[in-house]
Amino acid sequence: MPINAHRTRVKICCISNAQEVSLALKYGADALGFVGPMPSGPGVVEDDDAILAMTKQVPPPTATVLLTSNETAGDIVTHVLACGANTIQVVNHVSPKIYEDLRLDLPAATRILQVVHVEDEYSVELAQDYATKADSLLLDSGRPSANELGGTGRTHNWELSRAIVESVTVPVFLAGGLNAQNVGDAIRTVRPYGIDVCSGVRRGLALDEAMLSEFMTAIASR
Fold it and tell me: Could you give the 3-state DSSP secondary structure of residue 3?
């Protein structure tokens, strides 16, 4: 059965405290995202020990995803080991060559989620290349050339995202400007394995229960 025929998974990102962990779990999140030091975007947690305390709260099978802007294998491995996450989300367009070192040095169970910032047609080719190295992809709306690596609150060209989903065999998460009002259209257009959301379920900087409930309902009823 094609992976897109399954239930749409949900990753709640920018989790920044124990209360948000509990709230995301209450509403059935499949994955929780914790943002390490980052040049842009909300939800940054500078202290690795604080992230570690939160990842320890999360029971399996829920994934704990550490977002890292590090660009070398050594720095990425050090970061994920310090934070205790079981998945690493690489938000930069790093050289695919570092994957060999990551596979050697990360714990065997650690999954690698590679972000592809969908800016133009080249993004499809880039995603296809990463799909041969990473365990899954996440399509976002950043601009690495401007040191903007996510958390923009903007959508991107979903037709390009759909082309990526249709051309790779690994699971693909869709991110970028998603909320309860547009997530149904996004899923119908792109047909991703999963959805990633941050600002669309937040009021100000805080995870909002009413917005989260509305978002999860919109996904379930799309």
Answer: helix
Residue with token string 């060209």: 157
CB-based contacts of 1: which residues, under 8 Å, 6+ apart?
Answer: none
Q: How far is CA 141 from CA 47, 138, 174, 196, 209, in A?
A: 26, 10, 10, 12, 25
Query: Is it the case that residue 145 has pLDDT exceeding 80?
Result: no
For the entire predicted model, the pTM comes to 0.92
And the tokens for 129? 């290349």
- pLDDT given at position 1: 32
Residues 6+ apart with CB under 8 A from 93: 115, 116, 117, 126, 144
pLDDT digits (tens, 9 = 90+) for 44-55: 999 999 999 999
Q: Is 3-220 a domain of CATH 3.20.20.70?
A: yes
What would you report as the CA-atom Rg of the chain, rounded to the nearest whole angstrom? 16
